[in-house]
Each structure stands twice: as structure tokens, then as C-alpha cells.
């Protein structure tokens, strides 16, 4: 029953907008942000895996709320069967040269943004809108560091009819 309720909630596709067509409030904004993440406890992790450590509550099926730490990345939020699902935050620091550091806040299913969310890259570019399987999909706005906006209906991470992409 809990999973059905969560998935129904995740299908909401209409963000609140202001008069400038900027998304002002996403469902997870008020609950989580990179600045509001709790500090990691100064204790041993609650569960250790081969390449990560988990701090927080969980049951035998790895359902719970907490932080999953990798060498350079941190997932925070609700976990179902060990995957970030529901409102969450991912802080991504790449290990591959050329990739950009970013923060994702929004609705997740199995560690991927699905539903409404936002990604902010280290260079100040931000996408706010709908996601499907971790890609920009549906209504969304890409805002560049200089304030330029690209808005429309996104398909597989690209804005048709333009050079704009959120596959960075």
C-alpha cells in the first residue's frame, strides 16, 4: 500500500509557477535542500557495503531514511529496498575528468529523478521541471548562469528545436 501511494504522488506533473514562468515551489523543495542536509554522525555507519556507508534507520529490506555515502557522492532521503525513492537529494562530485559537479533535489524512484525536481550544476546552470528515469522529460526550464532561460517540453534530456540539453 505504501508503494502505491508513493508512486501516485510521484506522477504529479504540474509545478507551481510565478508570473515569470519560473518554478518557485517543487514538492520536495520545502523538505530537502543541499544546505539542510543533516551532518553525518561522528559514529560508525549503521550499515557498510563494499563501496558505500549508510547512516540512518532501516529495516531488513533496507527501507528507511538516511544518508548513503560513496567516496565522492552522497544520497539523502527515503530508501526503499536500498534505493533512494521519494523526496531526496544527491550531491554528485565526479571522478571522471570533464564531468560537472551537481546537486539534484526532487522526487526519486530507484535512485533516479522521476517526477518534479531540479538539478543545479557547479557552473550555476539549473534545470527545474519534470524528469523521467533521470532525464529532463516534459515541462521544464533550463536557466543559465547569465539568467537566460530555455523553456518548453523536453524529450530525453533535450529541448526539441534547440541546441539545449540538460545531459551535462
Oligomer: single chain
Helix content: under 10%
Write down the CATH class. Answer: Mainly Beta
Strand content: over 45%
Number of strands: 12
In the sheet with the most strands, the strands line up as 3-4-5-6-7-8-9-10-11-12
Number of helices: 1
Element-level helix/strand string: HEEEEEEEEEEEE
Which topology does CATH recognise? Histone H3 K4-specific methyltransferase SET7/9 N-terminal domain
Rg from Cα: 16 Å
* CA distance, first residue to last residue: 36 Å
Q: How many separate structural domains?
A: 1
The mean pLDDT is 78
Give the overall shape.
Answer: elongated
Structural account:
With 168 residues, the chain is mainly beta. It is built from one helix and twelve strands, in the order αββββββββββββ. It has one helix spanning 2-10, and strands spanning 16-17, 23-25, 47-48, 53-58, 64-69, 73-80, 83-92, 102-109, 112-121, 126-132, 135-143, 149-154. The strands form two sheets. It has a ten-stranded antiparallel β-sheet with strand order 3-4-5-6-7-8-9-10-11-12. Strands 1-2 form a two-stranded antiparallel ribbon. A hairpin with a 2-residue loop joins strand 10 (126-132) and strand 11.
Q: What would the keywords be for this entry?
A:
168 residues, mainly beta, Histone H3 K4-specific methyltransferase SET7/9 N-terminal domain, ten-stranded antiparallel sheet, two-stranded antiparallel ribbon, 1 helix, 12 strands, 5% helix, elongated, disordered N terminus
